[in-house]
Design goal:
The structure is a homodimer of 577-residue chains.
Chain A (H helix, E strand, L loop, with lengths): L1 H6 L2 H5 L4 H28 L4 H18 L7 E2 L2 H12 L7 H23 L11 H24 L8 H10 L6 H27 L4 H9 L1 H16 L26 H32 L6 H17 L6 E2 L1 H9 L6 H16 L9 H13 L5 H9 L1 H17 L1 H21 L3 E6 L6 E3 L11 E6 L8 H14 L5 E5 L8 H16 L3 E5 L3 H7 L4 H4 L4 E2 L2 H16 L2
Parallel strand pairs in A: 5-6, 6-7, 7-8
Antiparallel strand pairs in A: 1-2, 3-4, 3-5
Helix pairs in contact in A: 3-4, 3-11, 3-14, 3-15, 3-16, 4-13, 4-15, 5-6, 5-12, 6-12, 6-13, 7-8, 7-16, 7-18, 7-19, 9-10, 9-11, 9-16, 12-14, 17-18, 18-19, 20-21
């Protein structure tokens, strides 16, 4: 059933599942579950939702992705950047803490799931490519800074708000005098502890001779330790009465069946944010899945990934969650812990379901500051300014795109940041192609190969000008070539033939066709031949549909060497006439 | 003074001016002046301005363009499309017929002039290339239909309004019962007469043996004859009292010194329309200028043209005009009448100045219907639906761009029409480059040339896969190549080396560099060599700044033939091991 199996990858790995794979998947699931409990609560906080939403968003989505997704190791659920985007989008239509807010988050997941599903069925996965690597890197870095800053209010125990860095900083400064010192102590200690776990625990355990798997487990359990310690402290010393904000009552239940809001007003307001979240979530998820798949010589199918992530988001929409995607940290942990198949995800979902039913009363006294510390430590790993240095050295256009994305994301919010990064990347690309490099080429001695006369020692012939056009010819640069040929031909007095070497011309659109016709016409008037060489198949197919081929004031040569043989040698004797 | 002369082309032709050139220029100026008097009045009507604005807009701008412009034959002044755009833009900020309307038109000219000047000084003429030929053709055609329709109300003598075709048609139908039959008779007769002059007078005169120059003159004077006849008729029969709308009093004066409105609100509202008008006007003007220059083996400098047109618009802003550009009809007439230098334009300006002082009282009884007839006959020449057939045959993407531009211009107005045409062209281009053509190539027997294995009979070697990537590698298609190479290599079992033939790769941006690094990494893990061939100079310069060249799991060959020699032959014996 290959055609059916295409949409249900589970049929592929499911029939080969064995005891060894089961054991590996169970161990991986245990480690991931322990890591996910505090993380899910924390990301729900970041998204402005009640803590259980984070847990619910990790259960049905994981199961659905296990059925429809193609990556063996990807762990789907709430992630930092998407949580931030959710807070931004939903905050525009509802007040945090209201029932409308949670319903709008469901709607956002529904729209996002529907859009991803649609993109997958239409096989539009390539659209994600409009986000260039520098724009993604800049966006993730700026988001990390934004997210970490947004959590400072929980560490300080003050009420602050804002969606941009200046707004947040001003708001925090304005409320600084309300700082709750106990909260600050808890938050500061938790942050310091988690940083230490992240950076130093593993090597320390290694020096003590702890087995690798146990060391791994202990490191991953760091956040759990912070959660347990601070919760017990708040409970034991009654700190909630002294102004420390706590998670409070969390319903003790499996994910509920929920209905997203479907009013046309809500759908209209959330459509664009949902598309943005879908694309960013998809790009993040595919990057992770591809990286992990490559390590095991597996491949993922981006269009099927869209369907898997779409199903996961639809699941989140109907089970009290909010938009989800494949997370980097959790997926890597899952992979490193030895997950072999998507069944590991199913077991994680089971673990979280047990936690939702059995453990939620225990987090009543968990201080928000601890969750904020978890988020800060997690997202500062996303901040990577090295992309600035790398792109500066390689390409100024890419550097400009990174800087613009970072500054606009920090200064004007995530949506404007991504949009301006994408728009600028496209404009810079168009600008570059609008003034293409055109090389005058000659024959490399002893070969049939032609290269730039300014870079290589080559044979040339004064009566024959060969221009290698290093760009597809389309409207943005059509007129450029007209001017260039005109200029070159009026400069050289003895020119009898012009060859346009089309080895790098991958398209000739209608505007460019008209320009070529104009060039042909002018050169004919001047008594100069116009020839083409090395025209590729697809371009030739198209040119044959025009009059250019018939009207051409010259010939079309298969290779530039053929053109040289025909035009350079035959002209040399004539030059002596 | 070459550097100074660059900005003042008048210094170039001025010093070589002689008696013969003077005579030619004077004759051309006379013919153009006679044609321009009714046309200027008519276009002012189209722009919603008092008739004298059209004359004023033809005087100072012509003089300024003569000093700063590079085309010898271009005639600058009000043109149909720009008049329509002016009516649309100014209509959004002021009511027609008010003083604020005329002031806003001056502001539009000021902004447009400033923008053109700035583009010229920054040498940004290439920006005009974003308007592809199909988009321009579609836009001009749709504008012609819109303009002709907008004049129907003057032919019928009814009040109607609207900026889109449906709006106009509905409005005209709603007012149809108010039709003034005398106006309709005048308008209908004038239209029929002008069509006859345009199509049949010249051949008829030829058959009668009229000398060519006289025939030319009589044909161009057709609108003047219509103006004189209908004006006299209205005056003689007192038709103005019977509901025929007339031009009315026109001040008898040289162009006045005027001050554009400078309130930030007005500037803000008109900035985008001014940019649009500038770009469209520039494109129209440059196309005309290039066509005419090519006929005399002259060249125009697009960046200097921006300065010339910018100066012309600034002139219009301070002398009671409105946005101007180089017009097709008037420029062709000027050229055909033998204009040799921009001095012909100066003489035309003189003729119009005399007309503004001496002839304006005579047009008092000129019916608007005659001016409308002049416009209709002029603009229907712009309507050319053959672009639909041409692009359909050549390229569906271009066809879609034309159709979209036409439909959106007619249905949603000129600004939306152009914007959607440009946006769609760019998106279609990006879409095409996102899934590039990649050919697997082999050696054409008896040559050193490599072509597509599916199109040509070529030699190949099973251990060596050579992929010719037919597109620049950048973010939009970076991931595509990753997938493609991965797929091709996992398919063929005996593959030892992959050569990426970069003859058509004109750029490798940072995203693509990362993809190449990923490909390199994966192929190394699989024990397969990755090589590049025919990397162009500029691309190689950039790659050298990255780690890819050092880390490459293979070599970089100057030519594909070198790669073949090194990899195909050396591998063949090994295959027998």
């Amino acid at each position: 059933m290959p055609s059916f199996g295409r949409y249900l990858p589970i049929l592929d790995w499911g029939r080969r599942y064995d005891r060894q794979a089961l054991a590996n998947d169970l161990i991986a699931a245990l480690i991931v579950t322990i890591m996910l409990i505090p993380q899910s609560l924390a990301y729900a906080l970041l998204a402005g939702l009640p803590p259980e939403a984070g847990i619910y968003a990790s259960i049905a989505p994981i199961l659905l992705y296990a059925i429809f997704g193609t990556s063996r190791a990807l762990a789907v659920g709430p992630v930092a950047v998407v949580s931030l985007l959710t807070a931004t989008a939903v905050g525009q239509v509802a007040e945090q803490g209201t029932a409308g807010y949670a319903v709008a988050a469901l709607t956002l997941a529904l729209l996002s799931g529907g859009f991803l599903m649609l993109m997958g069925l239409l096989r539009l996965g390539f659209l994600a490519n409009f986000l260039s690597h520098p724009v993604i890197a800049g966006f993730i870095t700026a988001s990390g800074i934004l997210i970490a800053t947004s959590q400072l209010k929980h560490i300080l125990g003050v009420g602050a708000h804002g969606h941009t860095l200046p707004e947040m900083l001003v708001s925090i400064l304005a409320h600084l005098n309300e700082t709750n010192w106990i909260t600050l102590f808890i938050g500061g200690a938790a942050t310091a502890f988690l940083f230490w776990v992240r950076k130093n625990l593993r090597p320390a355990l290694g020096r003590l001779g702890t087995p690798a798997l146990l060391a791994d487990f202990l490191t991953k359990a760091g956040p759990v330790a912070a959660v347990v310690t601070t919760t017990v402290a708040v409970w034991a010393f009654g700190l909630a009465d002294r102004g420390v904000n706590i998670v409070g009552s969390v319903p003790q239940s499996l994910p509920p069946l929920t209905m997203p809001g479907l009013s046309s007003e809500l759908l209209g307001a959330l459509l664009l944010p949902a598309i943005l979240i879908s694309i960013i979530g998809f790009v993040e998820s595919v990057s992770v899945a591809q990286t992990l798949a490559a390590k095991k010589r597996q491949r993922i199918d981006p269009d099927q990934e869209l369907i898997g992530l779409g199903a996961a988001n639809l699941g989140a929409a109907f089970t009290g969650g909010y938009p989800v995607t494949g997370g980097f940290a959790r997926s890597v942990v899952n992979f490193d812990a030895g997950a072999e198949t998507p069944a590991a995800g199913a077991f994680t979902a089971l673990g979280l379901a047990i936690a939702a039913v059995a453990l939620t009363p225990l987090v009543h006294y968990l201080p928000n500051a601890t969750l904020a510390a978890t988020i800060i430590v997690a997202v500062l790993g996303l901040v990577d300014l090295s992309i600035l240095k790398k792109t500066w050295g390689y390409s100024r256009a890419d550097f400009v795109a990174v800087v613009t994305t970072i500054l606009f994301t920090l200064g004007m919010g995530v949506e404007v940041g991504v949009a301006s990064g994408v728009a600028l990347s496209v404009l810079l690309h168009l600008y570059k192609t609008s003034r293409p490099h055109v090389a005058e080429v000659g024959l490399v001695p002893g070969t049939q190969h032609f290269r730039n006369v300014n870079r290589h020692k080559v044979h040339t012939c004064p009566e024959l000008v060969t221009l290698r056009v290093d760009e597809s010819l389309y409207f943005v640069n059509a007129r450029f070539l007209e001017d260039l040929v005109q200029k070159r031909v009026t400069e050289g007095c003895a020119i009898r033939n012009v060859v346009l070497m089309f080895s790098a011309v991958n398209e000739v659109d209608y505007s460019a066709l008209e320009s070529l016709e104009a060039i042909n016409h002018r050169l004919r008037d001047m008594g100069v031949g116009l020839h083409l060489s090395e025209v590729k198949g697809p371009v030739m197919d198209r040119l044959r549909r025009s009059h250019l081929v018939d009207d051409l004031n010259g010939r079309i040569f298969l290779s530039q060497y053929d053109a040289w043989e025909a035009l350079a040698r035959s002209n040399v004797p004539r030059a002596a006439e």
